[in-house]
Amino acid sequence: MLQRTLTTCVRETKPPKGSGKKKLAVAAESDPSTPPVPTLAEQLSYLHYARPFKNPYYTKNVNRRAKNLKAVLTQERERERVERERRRQEREERMEVDGATEDDVPEEDLPTYSSIEAPPSVLPQRKYCDVTGLEGPYTDPATGLRYHDKSIYELIKSLSTSAAKDYLSARGVNPIVK
Amino acid sequence: MSENVELIRIPNQPIPTVRHIDPYDSFRGKETPLVIDNGSTNIRFGFATSANPASSTNVVAKFKERKQNKPLLLFGDAVDVESGARTQARTPWEGDVQLNFDALENALDYAFIHLGIDTPSIEHPVLMTERLASPLHSRSLTSELLFELYSVPSLTYCVDAVMSFYHNHLPTPPVPFTSDGIVVSFNTASTSVIPILHGKGLMSHAKRIPWGATQANDYLLKLIQLKYPTFPTRVMPQQTNWVLQNHCEFSADYPSLLRTLKDPAQLRLYEKVIQFPFSAPTTEEKTEEELARITERRREQGRKLQELAAKAREEKLQQKESDLQYLTALRERREEESKKEWTILLREEGFDNDAALDSTIKKLETDVKKSRKKDTDGDEMQEDVPTYPLLDVPDEELDEDGIKEKKKQRLLKAGYDARERTRKEKEREREEREAGERREEEERERDLESWAGKLRKEHEGIMTKIKERGRRRAALSDRKSAAAQARMKNIANLAADERVPKRKRKTGGGMFALADLFGADDADWAIYRKINTAAESSDEEEDLMNLQTVEAKLLAHDPTFTIEHTHASLSSQRSALMSAFRPQYEDGDFQGESILTFVMLGKARIHLSVERWRVCEAWFSPTMAGVDSAGLGEVLQNILGRFSDAEKARLVKNVFVTGGPSKLPGLIPRLQASLRPILPPEMPLAIVRAADPLNDAWRGMADFAKTDEFPKYGVTKAEYEEWGGERIKRWWGGNWNSSVSI
């Protein structure tokens, strides 16, 4: 019922050319060969809804192909570095000219995505057992896994190398593959 | 034991319903601001005057339905309906950065469609969120999308955490917003800390930790996979997400919690058991009658085969008998015929001479006799003692053939004698063994204790030998141990050329003195056993067999020796800690109709004990999960350190947590515990959680959009066209990078 009111709405305001797509209900009525009961997925799909608010003259910028995260971040960093250089240049010039430093926007005031990231931790890290998660004061010299007590050590001795590597990668230690 | 434990089952996701489109008429032409909280997990949108936002998961799937080849576009929860859609799901966010703008376009389409907008362009000013210090690339593309594709009149960006703070500290107008506090915002892929002084968010002092709900989810999934490498079903990230949201919590004092959990009993108390659905194995259990029928059928088949074999044998026997008769008749004819005709006759039959005929006849006779005997009685044939008459005759009396015959007979006799001897020895051994057993039995019946004690000592001796061997093997694998070095010394000695045994120097002389007489003494070969590490296996097997016999005897007769004392159970004993940490379900644990089903049920269970807190602890120390970053406590400390004491006091009086993961229990006590020690004791510290951590950002934005200040901070279309998509105006709730103060 609601859909029908919307169809009438669309017809009244005369959608601009190119953007009016056929509604699903209209399609069903006009084409008797489509199955009478659309599946849930079809009901939920909004591909066929009218989108009058879209600008039909907007050409898709090909550059918009999703760049991956690394590319975006490196680009940011480059820009920030260039910006920083430029500011320093400006400041030096201004110092030479005026002799007195203006109260310019301080350099560190510009937070960027990478500058805002938290620094690595300087606190001493606690050692946890890789297998159980309890305290792990001991380390196995052969695999590098930390363990809680000797029963866990027995278990570690019986692990295969790939299983040991999995445990290590959970901690973030990725041993070099020989 | 495990029947009383409450089992947790992960609920199935609800099926999404078709969302109806809101009527637009109330908003037409009014220029109410449109508020969109564009989050990594959920997108929330609505008009500023609505009380609640419409919220949906920020996921888009565009794919072709396989059955009818129809292209479909699904959004949000609807993506779960079709399995094909799930693989094609795209989200505009990758962690914290907006990367996929097609997905964003589809998401915005969905939002606008469901708000019922049908005007040729969006006629409402838009207030949208972006990440803290969002990269300019994302911002420029979003602006481009909104201005050029949707033609919005003005666009304002804000940081969601500050807006949530605003909502919870709403000033009554006309008082301006001047609250102070620190906002800790838990986002999907990061956690940010932003200090707010005098109503202004200090973005330059803000910090972002790259650990958020997704990373915690992945960590939990990884821990589960490590703990249960042979789990029958695949654990999906959605399931661990549910577990994370409902059963994990922060612990106020992690080290002391670990110390209590060290005890296996406590571990058992604190654990939660999650039962996963499993598919029962599809073996049909045959009923009794079916089994009986099958055995009957097999027996019948066996009988038939036996009959067939008997018949075949009969036939062969008959054949042989007839042959025998024929050949004996032939032999009788020998008397009748002359020699020449006899040879021709023989040739026809296929025999070379008389002797061949005779031997074949004899063979046939014995065969027939044997088979007759087998058919009639199945007893062992008593071999009559064969006689060797020629052996007694001296050599001179015999001719060539006779001598050959005699040699043959001697060989036969020797063989027969040897067989007799071995048989007698075997009998003797058997008798001895029986006598020994009888003696043991008498001893046992007489004095159970001492007999048991003797056997037990033997048992222990064998076990120690096995353990020694195991230890020796472990020592040999280590290159630097004493055993390995001794072995190398032995090898070097063997390989050395000038090996002069002392023995020969004393006794012999001449050129034999320098000969290497290594192998003369049998004991010398023993050295090869010492250096060959693989030679232990035969000894081991012997020991194990002895052990088994001893154990069998003990088990049968000694009431105090139970299965637990056997070597097998002792060696595979798992420590109490391991069995509490990761219980294993054996076959004998359950009683019930179908033991197999119960074992399968047991194997599809996950016991979570330490992981519940370990995952949340990673927020405070991400290095334990491999992320090289400071934890929440340390970051707070760093940020507070940059302010003066007066400002610090104003900040910590109002620590505000918001965001989805802030709903995890135990967060506030934990923050208290980490902040209190670093502050002077007289400074008041108060930590507050947002009233509705998920939606408060949207509400704050809606509130802000209704004030008079809102139009000042937006970038209008004209300004966009002049400045480009990256520049925004600096205001108290927005980002500072590439911003211009007004």
Number of strands of chain A: 2
Structural class of the secondary elements of chain B?
A: alpha/beta
Indicate the multimeric state: heterodimer
- Largest sheet of chain A, order of strands side by side? 1-2
DSSP summary, beta strand count of chain B: 22
Structure description:
Helices cover 41% and strands 2% of the residues of chain A. Chain A is an all-alpha fold and 178 residues long. Among the domains of chain A are: 67-96; 138-171, no CATH class. A two-stranded antiparallel ribbon of chain A has the order 1-2. Chain A starts with a helix and ends in a 7-residue tail after the last helix. Mean pLDDT of chain A is 70; it is low at 1-34. Chain B is built from 27 helices and 22 strands. Chain B is 49% helix and 12% strand. Mean pLDDT of chain B is 80; it is low at 378-382, 509-514 and 587-593. In chain B, helix 5 packs across helix 6 (237-247), helix 13 crosses helix 14 and helix 13 packs antiparallel against helix 17. In chain B, the strands form six sheets. In chain B, strands 4-3-2-10-11-20 form a six-stranded mixed beta sheet, with helices on both faces. In chain B, strands 12, 13, 14, 15, 18 and 19 form a six-stranded mixed beta sheet that branches. In chain B, strands 1-16-17 form a three-stranded mixed beta sheet. Among the domains of chain B are: 24-175 and 691-738, 2-Layer Sandwich (Nucleotidyltransferase, domain 5); 213-280 and 609-646 and 665-683, Actin, Chain A, domain 4 (Alpha-Beta Complex), CATH 3.90.640.10; 288-384. In chain B, helix 24 (667-675) links the parallel strand 18 (655-658) and strand 19 (687-689). Chain B is of the alpha/beta class and 742 residues long. Chain B is elongated, with a radius of gyration of 47 Å. At the A-B interface, helix 1, helix 3, helix 4, helix 5 and helix 6 of A face strand 6, helix 2, helix 3, strand 15 and helix 5 of B. Chain A: InterPro entries: INO80C/Ies6 (IPR029525), Vps72/YL1_C (IPR013272). Chain A: It is found in: Nucleus. Chain A: Residues 127-156 form the Vps72/YL1 C-terminal domain. Chain A: One of its GO terms (cellular component) is Ino80 complex. Chain A: Residues 1-10 have a biased composition (Polar residues). Chain B: Residues 367-449 are annotated as: Disordered.
